[in-house]
Amino acid sequence: MNISKIKHSKKKTEQIMLIGKRGTWVSWILFLGLIVALSSVIFIWARTTTTESTEHVTSSIEVRDACRNILFSIDEGSKCDTLYLTNRGTLNIEGFILRSTKTSANVAEKLLINEKKHPIAIPQRIQEDLNSQKAVLTIIPLVKIGSKNFGCGEKKVIFECPS
Is the whole model's pTM more than 0.70, yes or no? Predict the structure, then answer.
C-alpha cells in the first residue's frame, strides 16, 4: 500500500471523528437546554398551583372559623306574617339569604341586609315581612371576611310557619 494513501485516509477518519465529536457536544448542549426549559416550566406551574391551593384552603378555614361564631334566633309574628332575625353570636352578621320554597319547582331567593347598610351587630334585630306566604324558608347567614361576603351553609336554618 502506498504510504500517502494511508496518511490521507488517517486524516479523513480523524476529520470524521472530530465532526462526530462536535455533533455529540451540540446534541448534549441542546439536550441540557431542553431539560432546563422544561424544569423551569414545571417549577413555575408547581409554584402557582401551590399558591392557589394554599389561598383556597386558608380562605375556607377563615370562613369556617367565622361561621362557628355565628348564632342567631328566629321569631315569627303573631300570624306568621313577620320574621324577626336577631344576632346573638360574637360576630357581626352582614345579612341573610332567604330562600322561599312553596313547591319543589317554585324557589325564590332574596338577600336580606340591614337597611342602614351596616352589619347586624350584637344584639340587633332585623325584620322581614312574609306577606303570609306559608312557605318553607331556608335562612343562611352571611359573614364578611376581607372584602367578600360568604354564606354560612352549616348554620342554615329551615323555618316553616306553623299552620
Answer: no
